[in-house]
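thought: fold this chain, then report.
action: predict
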Amino acid sequence: MAEINASEAGTYKFDNHFVINRLGYGTMQLTGPGVWGPPADPENAVKVVKKAVELGVDFFDTAD
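observation:
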């Protein structure tokens, strides 16, 4: 399976200094039941976030 990089989706510019890749990651499903609390598998949650960074994700949506 070929890996893509989030930068291939283009970028979004907030101002002259803040530019992110358009492809971000919504972290809501990393948490515990009902999207609150610690994840059921904290080690795997860390692996998921690290993999997202490896794939060029530089915007993480933590809002509920």
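thought: worth noting. Residues 26-64 form one domain.
final: tokens above.
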